[in-house]
């Protein structure tokens, strides 16, 4: 499988990193990561170039790593700084170092061309720093599923009625049309369910018992970030679509890290505009979301098993697949751009372009 390499991926929550040497697998590559003395995170190829012992089985010498086999030592830029028993340090004695950036207690890693690693391109939202919103990191959900299928699930409001009938959906939304916009940076799929019974989530978190207007806006950013804007308000309040902050509004953020072709880690978190002073609210929401995301996990892992078996015929697509189809097309285009080198950005006068 070809992964998108020129992108920022979440390596982990900030709390997952300390002074210990820890192995992480991202895009089918093993990486050793640790906090340096200054508190920043280093990321190196987890394989000594001599006999291939993982450096994570070695030990730290200050901010450097000493291989546990023959003592070759590498600094946090991947350069070999010591080979016991010899004074010369060959240029080929190095390990790859990966750009890392930490923001909002999230550690991001760049797996592609280093010169393209711009921290300004890291995903952000104004609500992270807004005191009117509560930010809470959830879990790292491991799925035995391809990240493309996981991402498609996160731009698909239509599945909620059937996969999450007691948590995030109910039967009142089964035939409500889904809108899709694919012109911007994110693919967006959304729908409103007007004057309907509150779903289980908002019965427990919000105490809604009357009929409500509720919404789902699914934003999918290639290659592997999704933001689900969902919430509800009492039907009698008659809020407009651009007045969602007047209701109980929640952002569920999903940062998908492809581990291998059939293993994805979905680190999820939530941001809410309600119950800001309630210390138990985050834990209550975690419990509710864990149940819903387990339902997704069961479905996606079952799909993965079937995809790995011989297929008798081609899968079909139906009307609700517009968002996933655009996503797959964008991923294919990104793969193709990375597969080739564009040398036509400054064409010679022999070629004159008119479009």
UniProtKB/TrEMBL annotation:
Domain of life according to the entry: Bacteria
MF (Gene Ontology): 2 iron, 2 sulfur cluster binding; metal ion binding; methyltransferase activity; monooxygenase activity
Keywords: 2Fe-2S, Iron, Iron-sulfur, Metal-binding, Methyltransferase, Monooxygenase, Oxidoreductase, Transferase
Protein name: Vanillate O-demethylase monooxygenase subunit
Biological processes, Gene Ontology terms: methylation
Sequence intervals crossing the membrane: none
Signal peptide interval: none
Entries under Pfam families matching the protein: Rieske, VanA_C
InterPro entries according to UniProt: Cholesterol_7-desaturase, Rieske_2Fe-2S, Rieske_2Fe-2S_sf, VanA_C_cat
Domain Rieske stretches: 8-109
